[in-house]
Design goal:
By secondary structure, the chain is mainly alpha-helical. It contains 18 helices and seven strands.
């Protein structure tokens, strides 16, 4: 972020407005009581200190650069991680499970960076499906999954630890939502990051039908929360009326075999995704989509979402390095994938949220290239978020459910900041109320840290609220928000900016010692970065020197 993008201390002259500039990525702090509601926005009064809306939005390119919190840049510590492949076997004490659940040997993944657990699929108790056959089928799927993943991982020097179905509890439940909750509990219990599970039932004609599903836990995927939650692994697969030989079935039923291979490739793609190797992740997802049995569109929306997210990440990375043309190409590819997901399943909330993201990405690119805010792109994104909210097929994971709210907060803030002349005073008031309401929902869902996966969103929310209050010269309230953002910051980069903005607030309030301490904290955070931003360090040091000289 350049010096122009900090909260300026000088009062603007007449109608002068700072030009938008790029700012860095964000991070997060601990929850504090929400400050009093800020008054409705008015145009900048030259006699009042603080930020004009355009100056304010230039600060926010970094926050908005979070790209609806969907395409965050993975922390540096994660980038160079490589995972050594090792299959983990069971040796611990057996814990019997009730009814049809086999007696598993409880194992907790401790040494692996990423763990994949395969659970025996649930069977409806009223249907006459021999549990022995159901378990035999899943055992065969597990063996094939490990082999396929191993072959794929060897090409890219990547691996994970697997837990076999006889070592973990069974995921139970008659509905997808109940099974997801059960998968989440299993992941917590054994330390798995991905869980493969599902249902085996009988169709009306008596044949067996398998519906595979998988769950992605938010722990290892905390920097890719858009991927977390449960997914159907395609549509249901029809089998014969019994499973006498699982190995033979996997060799003869090409749909089941192809879906198992696709699962291995999807799981490899997920791990590549969190190591920021988006091109290889995209290749893995593409290979999964090419497997036999997924030529039909039904059930493919999961792949569309994964591909869309991967293209979005590549767009964000390209934008960060100034490759605007490539960034736009990736946005277009992401939009195609999300639209295809909508075409497949018009009630799929993730697809509408993904589409909204692409319009927000495009808005952000336009803003950085031209300095002009395209209001229609923001309004289109808002409309898509509303469709996501009204969709029937909603994710269950707290972080995924909260992101559309966080996105709405960002977009309404941008409209409130940039389009003062496009709205009446009452309409501006409504935009601000919308922004505040969304921000309060995010903070409420973070719940004082009880939902740790929301920490970064909570931190950015506090920062955004602080900037909005700062723009209205409400520095006492703004400083409280910046303190909260700083306390929750998940990176030194964001901590640097939050501390710098806090210092600017204290300076305007003539709290010189507090301002000096905040600027020093910003310098300390900057120096902790691998590539310290010297211009920012110089800026903060100049502020300290000026305050000391005047003191």
């Amino acid at each position: 972020m350049s010096e122009e993008s900090r909260p300026p201390q000088e009062q603007p002259q007449g109608n002068e407005e700072a030009q938008p500039t790029s700012a860095p990525q964000p991070t997060s702090p601990p929850p504090m009581p929400a400050p009093p509601s800020a008054p409705s926005p008015v145009k900048k009064d030259p006699e009042r200190p603080g930020l004009s809306r355009i100056e304010l939005i230039s600060l926010l390119i970094g926050v908005l650069g979070l790209i609806l919190a969907f395409f965050q840049i993975v922390p540096e510590e994660t980038r160079n991680q490589l995972f050594g492949f090792s299959e983990q076997t069971a040796t611990a004490t057996a814990t019997p499970e009730p009814t049809i659940t086999p007696t598993p040997t409880q194992v907790v993944i401790s040494d692996a960076d990423v763990g994949i657990a395969v659970s025996y699929f649930v069977t409806p108790p009223e249907q006459t499906i021999p549990d022995e056959q159901a378990r035999s089928l899943v055992d065969g799927v597990y063996a094939r999954l490990v082999d396929e993943f191993d072959a794929f991982a060897d090409q890219i020097d990547l691996g994970v630890a697997f837990l076999s179905p006889n070592t973990v509890p069974r995921v139970e439940g008659r509905t997808r939502a109940i099974r997801e909750a059960s998968a989440r509990a299993l992941a917590d219990e054994v330390g798995a990051d991905i869980v493969l599970y599902g249902e085996i039932s009988r169709a009306a004609n008596g044949s067996l039908v398998v519906q595979p599903e998988f769950y992605v836990a938010p722990d290892v995927f905390s920097d890719a929360l858009e991927l977390t939650g449960s997914y159907r692994l395609g549509s249901a697969i029809s089998l014969s009326d019994s499973v006498e030989n699982a190995e033979e079935l996997l060799n003869t039923n090409r749909v089941l075999s192809g879906r198992t291979t696709a699962a291995a490739q999807i799981f490899a793609g997920l791990v590549l995704y969190i190591t920021e190797n988006y091109q290889l992740a995209a290749r893995a997802f593409e290979q999964a989509g090419a497997q036999r049995g997924w030529e039909e569109t039904q059930g493919r929306e999961v792949l569309n979402i994964l591909m869309g997210n991967t293209y979005g990440k590549q767009s964000s990375a390209a934008a960060q390095t100034g490759e605007t043309e490539r960034a736009r190409e990736q946005i277009s590819l992401a939009r195609e994938e999300y639209q295809e997901a909508v075409n497949v399943n018009a009630e799929y909330a993730r697809a509408y949220t993904g589409l909204a993201t692409t319009y927000y990405l495009e808005w952000n690119l336009d803003l950085q290239e031209t300095g002009v805010s395209n209001q229609q792109l923001l309004l289109t994104a808002l409309d898509l978020l509303e469709q996501a909210n009204n969709a029937i097929d909603q994710p269950e994971e707290a972080a995924v459910l909260t992101k559309p709210i966080f996105s709405r907060m960002q977009i309404t803030f941008a409209l409130w900041t940039y389009h003062v002349d496009d709205y009446t005073t009452d309409e501006l008031d409504e935009l601000y109320r919308d922004f505040r309401a969304a921000s309060e929902q995010v903070i409420r869902r973070y719940d004082g840290g009880r939902n740790p996966s929301l920490q970064e969103m909570a931190s950015e929310t506090y920062a955004l609220r602080g900037l909005a209050l700062y723009a209205q010269s409400l520095c006492p309230q703004a400083s409280e928000e910046f303190i909260a953002a700083l306390d929750l910051a998940v990176s030194n980069l964001r901590g640097m900016f939050f501390a710098g903005w806090l210092g600017d607030c204290y300076k305007l309030m003539n709290q010189d010692n507090d301002a000096i301490n905040a600027y020093q904290r910003a310098i300390d955070a900057a120096l902790a970065l691998t590539d310290p931003p010297l211009d920012q360090i110089e800026r903060y040091q100049d502020e300290i020197d000026e305050l000391r000289a005047n003191g």
